[in-house]
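Q: what sequence does this backbone want?
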């Protein structure tokens, strides 16, 4: 395992960590070439603290380092309270039936995240809300109508990217009709391909045509496409469907590999190797330093054994470098922009709807 190979492998990951200050582990990962870090509620105290933490990480890197967060609006928002806007749920945004309003919501989210130093928002959810028993999507989706989700999702993503923050459509190829939570189990969807093309894939096709930044995979088995493995590990889903059929050219990022749909059925290391074979560019491993180290080792060992080639790693590096050139910024001091007239003008009329303060996945994510 050479240093250059380990550096290549590290550059395919985004890790999470505990606490309001940088952990020793995340600093070591950054030194070794990590692409970026994702912050959760467990990392958030005050706006000044978050901005200082992001600055610390970027200064330590001395190179482009991508900082990401799940700031969807509604019940999935890591940043809450003044001076952040109480962005309504996407169901509430969808009720306006107004792409211009959705784009304004995206711009507001992007403005607030950029002020703290974030480069990437894992939003919007473009799952179609067709199953009232879905335990994890629900009001995170814009609508039960595929074309409405497509139009509003693209608009919100454009608003984010207009403010200099990468968007990420999730969860491909569709999490809206599941009755299980992939944080806790491995869901399966039995729909025929014709149904998927008419419903689940419509928003992702629109997002691909709009040439937006990134798509996040779902840890779900889609019987009609590949009944053997979840989408995150399926060449038929990611290369055949997303890349070749829908024409998506941006970054493919996995959902967190420590979710039980992956960790309890395949193991994180094997999922990373098979995910790379399938077409994933970047892997989220959000909690455990030893699991994070083992994921990097798995990539290096797969190259050494011939299961993966360096050329495959370099192809993903090229897409990640393109995203970084567009969106990743160095250390900045823009915190004073929060509460500015420009900020207040963007927020006017957006943060007027009541939102739930409970994220049902937060208990698991913090465990």
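A:
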């Amino acid at each position: 395992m050479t240093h250059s190979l380990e550096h290549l492998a590290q550059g395919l990951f985004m890790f999470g960590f505990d606490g309001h200050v940088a952990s020793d582990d995340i600093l070591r990962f950054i030194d070794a070439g990590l692409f970026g870090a994702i912050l959760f509620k467990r990392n958030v105290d005050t706006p000044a603290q978050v901005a200082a933490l992001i600055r610390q990480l970027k200064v330590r890197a001395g190179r482009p380092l991508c900082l990401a967060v799940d700031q969807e609006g509604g019940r999935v928002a890591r940043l809450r309270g003044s001076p952040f806007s109480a962005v309504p749920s996407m169901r509430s945004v969808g009720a306006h039936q107004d792409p211009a309003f959705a784009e304004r919501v995206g711009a507001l989210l992007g403005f607030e995240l950029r002020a703290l130093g974030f480069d990437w928002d894992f939003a919007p959810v473009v799952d179609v809300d067709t199953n009232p028993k879905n335990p994890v999507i629900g009001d995170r989706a814009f609508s039960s109508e595929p074309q409405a989700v497509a139009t509003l999702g693209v608009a919100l993503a454009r608003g984010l990217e207009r403010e200099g923050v990468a968007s990420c459509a999730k969860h491909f190829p569709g999490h809206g009709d599941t009755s299980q939570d992939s944080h806790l189990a491995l869901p399966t969807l039995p729909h025929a391909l014709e149904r998927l093309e008419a419903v689940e894939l419509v928003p992702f096709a629109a997002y691909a045509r709009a040439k937006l930044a990134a798509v996040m995979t779902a840890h779900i088995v889609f019987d009609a496409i590949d009944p053997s493995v979840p989408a995150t590990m399926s060449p038929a889903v990611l290369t055949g469907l997303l890349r070749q059929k829908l024409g998506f050219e941006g970054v493919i990022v996995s959902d967190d590999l420590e979710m039980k749909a992956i960790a309890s059925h395949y193991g994180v290391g094997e999922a990373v190797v098979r995910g790379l074979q399938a077409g994933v560019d970047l892997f989220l491993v959000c909690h455990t330093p030893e699991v994070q180290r083992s994921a990097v080792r798995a990539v290096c060992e797969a190259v050494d054994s011939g299961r993966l080639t360096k050329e495959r790693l370099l192809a993903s590096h090229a897409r990640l470098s393109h995203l970084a050139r567009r969106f990743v910024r160095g250390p900045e001091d823009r915190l004073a922009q929060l509460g500015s007239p420009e900020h207040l003008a963007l927020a006017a009329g957006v943060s007027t709807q009541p939102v739930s303060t409970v994220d049902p996945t937060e208990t698991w994510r913090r465990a």
